[in-house]
Specification:
Layout (H helix, E strand, L loop, with lengths): L3 E7 L5 H11 L4 E4 L5 H12 L5 H22 L2 E5 L7 H12 L4 E4 L9 H6 L2 E3 L2 H13 L6
Length: about 150
């Protein structure tokens, strides 16, 4: 198996995406990674920057959310696997939505979070095919899925 397309959803405040992509590259895995826009300002302001300013913050957020949804929906639909990372600093409602959307599409879903979030995320975890705590575990899962290889896992 090669040329796997993986969507990396979830928290944007740590370098977990880079750790996974760097680890996959080091393991010689042929994976195309996609992700939401992780520049918070760009993500928040895309609607008003492209479509015009709004007086009320509700409509600013509404425009931005819809533009971001075009990207998210398209990339999740095109992905072979969806990985969703939940961090402990913020409530990531968008990550939970992405996990539910991927699950509804029948996409293989891998969830990543710290052990402290096991109870609050039990329903999300139940929809996943794997639940990991570290980027290294994610790379090992992807290596096994693509190559059937357990070395250095």
């Amino acid at each position: 198996m090669s040329d796997l397309s993986v969507y990396l959803s979830g928290e944007i405040h740590t370098d977990w995406r880079e750790k996974i992509s760097d680890g996959a590259l080091a393991a010689g895995l042929s994976i195309k990674f996609n992700a939401p826009v992780t520049n918070h300002n760009n993500s928040d302001d895309c609607g008003i920057t492209i479509l015009g300013n709004e007086e009320k913050s509700f409509w600013k957020d509404h425009k931005g959310a819809k533009l971001n949804a075009i990207r998210t929906k398209t990339l999740i639909e095109q992905s072979n696997v969806v990985i969703v990372r939940f961090g402990d600093k913020y409530k990531q409602w968008n990550a939970a939505f992405d996990a539910g959307f991927a699950s509804a599409l029948g996409k293989p879903l891998i969830i990543m979070h710290d052990a402290s979030l096991t109870h609050p995320l039990k329903e999300v975890d139940a929809a996943a095919l794997a639940v990991a705590e570290t980027p290294e575990q994610i790379v090992a899962i992807l290596k096994y899925v693509i190559k059937g290889d357990l070395s250095a896992a």
